[in-house]
Amino acid sequence: MRYKNLNNIKGAVIIASFMCIVFTGCKDDATSTPSCLNEYNLSPLLANYADSIILPRYTAFSAQYDELYAAGQAFLASPSTQLLADFKNEYKATYLSWQSISSFDFGPAEEVFLINTFNNFPLNEGKAYADALEGNLDFSSPEDYNKGLPLLDYFLFGLAKGDVATVDSFDTNKKLVEYTQAVLDDMKTKLGQTVINWQSYKSTFVSSTGTKDGESISLLVNALNKDYEYIKRNKVGVPSGVLSLGFTNPNEVEAYHSAISLELAAAAVESSRTIFEGIAPDGSNGIGLDDVLRELNADKNGQNLTDVILGQYSLIEEKLTNVEGSLSDAVDQDKEDVISLYNALSEQVIYLKSDLPSVMCIPITYVDNPSDSD
Amino acid sequence: MTGLLRFLNGSRSITPLVTFRITYGLLLFFSSIRFWYQGWIDTLFVEPSFFFKYYGFHWVEMCPSALIKPLFGIMILAALCVALGLFYKYALALFLLLFSYFELVDATNYLNHHYLVVLFGVLLLIAPAHRYFSLDVKRGAATERLEIPRFYSYMLILQIGVVYTFAGIAKLNSDWLLNAMPLRIWLLEYQDLPMLGGLLRHTQTAFAFSWFAAVYDCTIVYFLLFTKTRKWAYTTVVIFHLLTAVFFNIGIFPWLMITSNLIFFGDAFHARLYRQKSTFAPTKNDVPHIPLYLVLVVAVFLAIQLILPMRHLAFGGNTMVTELGYRFGWRVMLLEKAGVATFTLRDQENERYMEIDNSEYLTEFQEKQMAIQPDFMLQFAQHIAEQNSGLVSHPIVTVSSFITLNGRVSQRFIQPDLDLLKVADDWSDKPWIIYRNVK
C-alpha cells in the first residue's frame, strides 16, 4: 500500500518535472542555422594545398636559397664589392621568397624550427657579433636571435659603412667569414630537411581529413593565423609604437639595415592572401579556403565571408602602398599611414582567426589544451 | 513533516553509502595523481603570473610555488584516506579544503564536475560513511554500523538529480536540438577515424547524439529510481558516459557519474559487494535518528543549488552568450566558443595609448578563457592598469572584443568605448555586454 502511494508520487514528480523542463526550455532566441564542414570532403582541398601551393613554393624557395648559398660562398671565399653586390641581391630575393613559405609552420618545418632558423627578428646584434668573434656556432636554440636572414641583413648592410668597408671587414676578420658560413649552413641544413621530409609527410597531410587539433586543416589554418599575427604584430605593430604608448621602435623592423621591410610585408600579405585563395605560384586558382567559405554560405554583415576577407586583403595592400619610404623612417615620419595600416591588419585578424575557423568548425588552438573541459 | 522525518529515518543498509565513499575517494586519488602526472600543476598553477578570481573569493591567493606540490601531495593522500576510511572526517575535511583551494585560486580552470566533487564532499562530510568496511572501524576509532537512516542516500540521490536535471534543461535550446550544435563540431573532429568516422561525418549522427543526450539527462534519474528499469538505466549510464569519455576531453566526469550512480541500487546489491547475506533486512535497531536541523541544513544546501543555476533568468539575454549566471549551473558541453579580445590602455593625461599583448600577462589557456568571459575581462583590465602604473598614471582600459558561438560568424561582444576600470564586478546586470542573444 505504502509503495503504491510512493509510485504515484513518483509519477506526479516525473510529469511535473517534464512540464518544468519543456516550459523552461522552449523560450529561445530566433535561430540561424550555423554552417559547418559536415559531409564536406576535405581531401581535394588538402591535395591542392600540398601539390599546387606548399610543395611548389618550397621548391621555388629552395632554388632561390641555393642561389643565395652559392653567392655567399663565392663572396666569403674571396670578398669583393662585385661579389658582395651579388650576395646582397640574392639575400633580398631570398628574403622576399621566404615570405611565401613562412605560413607553413607545421609538420616538417615545425620539427626543425624553420621559422626561427630563417627569420628571428629583430636580430640581437650584440649577441650575434659576440658569438661571431667567439666562434660560437651553435644555432640549435630556437630562442636565439643571432642567425638567419636577419644576420645577413646586419652583416652585409649594417656592420660597416659602405660596400668597401664591408668587404674590408670580411677580408680582415675571418671570424665573420666563419660565422656567416655557419649561418648559411644552418639554414641550408634545416631547409633541406624540411623539403625532404615533406616528400613523406605529404601523404599524411592529405589523408588526415579530420578537423581536430593537430590534423591538417587545423594545422594549416592555425599556421596561417600565426603567421598573419606575426605580420601584424612584429612586422608593423612593434615598430609603429602601438604596443608601446606611441614610442616607436624603428630599428625593430624586419630587415632594418637593407631597408626592405615594406616589400617584405607586402610579400607576406600577398602570400597570406594567395594561400587563402588557393592560388598556385603559376597563377592557377585551385580549391582554397575561399571556396570552402563560399560553399558554406558564411554571411558576415550581409556579405559572404570570403568577400569580406578578400576585401580586407585589398584594403591592407592599398594601405601598404600608402606608406612612404622605408618602414623604419615611416613609423616616425608617416605615422598616420602606418597606424592606419596596422588597424587594417588588426581588423582582418577577426575574420581570419575568429570567423573563418568558427564557420568551418575548426577549433583554433596554438597549443594543446592544458586541462580537461566540460 | 513528522511523516517525512519518519520516512527519512527509515533504516537501510550502510553499504550503498560505503560504496559511494570508496569510489569517490579512489577516483579523486587517481585523478589527482593524473593531474600531477600531466604536468598541469606547472601549467595551471606555477606558470601563470596572474590568476582570475571568483566573485567573493578575491582574497584567495596562490600560495608560494614551493608549497604547491606538497599541498597537492597532502590532498592526494587525504583522498586515499577517504577511500580507506582512515581518519575519515579529518581526511575528508582536509581533502575538501585543499581541493576547493586549488579550484578557487584560478577561476580560469572552472569545471562543473570539480564543483560536483566539492558538493559530494560536503554531503559526505555529514554522512557516517566510515562506519563500515573502513580502517577507522578496524582500528577501533569508530563503531561499526550496518544500518543507517535512508536520509543519507536520498540526499546524494537528490544531488545527482539536480545535476542531471539542470544539465538536461540546459540542452533544451535551439542550438542543441535544432542545429545539433556544438556536437556537430566536436564529432566532426573524429571524421577520419576508421569505420566510425564515416558515421560521425553525417549531421544526422550529431542530431541523434544531441537528442539522445537531452532525453538521457532529463529522464535518467527516474529510470534509475524505479526498480524495474534500474538495471537497464544503469547499463545506459555506463554506455553513455563511456562514449562521452571516448569522444570528449572531460576528465573524471564520466567516471564520477558511473560510480556515484551506484547509489541508486538497493541494499541487496551493495550488501553482496561486501559478501554480506544477499537478503538484507533492516532490524531497525540502534539506528540513530537524523536530527531535524540536519535535514534542514541539507534542504537549504540543495535549495541553493536549485536557485544558483536559474539566476541567469535575472539578467537579460542568453546566458550561453553573455556568461551571466553561467557557472555553477550544470551547463555542460553546450558551447564551442572562442574570442579575440584586444585591450587598449590609454593615458588620460597625454592622449598616449597602447595595445596590450595579452600573452605578456596571461598563459595561452587563460587568454582563451578570458576572451569569452566578461568578468575576467574586468579583472584583466585592472591588472593591466596596475602592471603599467609606472607608465600610465591616469589609465583608461577599453576592449575590442569579438566572440564566435557554435559555428557562427563573430559578433562584437563588449561595448568598445567603455572604460573597464570604472565598472564594478558585482551581481547586477552588465548592460555593456552588447552581444546578448544568439543571432
Concise account of the structure shown:
The complex is a heterodimer of chains A (374) and B (439). Chain A has helices spanning 2-26, 43-77, 81-98, 108-111, 114-119, 125-134, 148-158, 162-172, 174-207, 216-240, 261-277, 289-295, 305-322, 327-333, 335-360; strands at residues 299-300, 303-304.
List the helices and strands and how they pair.
The complex is a heterodimer of chains A (374) and B (439).
Chain A lengths: L1 H25 L16 H35 L3 H18 L9 H4 L2 H6 L5 H10 L13 H11 L3 H11 L1 H34 L8 H25 L20 H17 L11 H7 L3 E2 L2 E2 H18 L4 H7 L1 H26 L14
Antiparallel strand pairs in A: 1-2
Helix pairs in contact in A: 2-3, 2-9, 3-7, 6-9, 7-9, 8-9, 10-11, 10-15, 11-13, 13-15, 14-15
Chain B lengths: L1 H7 L2 E3 L1 H23 L2 H7 L18 H20 L3 H17 L7 H15 L8 H4 L8 E3 L1 H21 L2 H5 L4 H6 L7 H5 L2 H23 L1 H21 L5 H8 L6 H7 L18 H16 L11 H4 L14 E11 L5 E3 L8 H7 L3 H14 L7 E11 L5 E2 L27
Antiparallel strand pairs in B: 1-2, 3-4, 3-5, 5-6
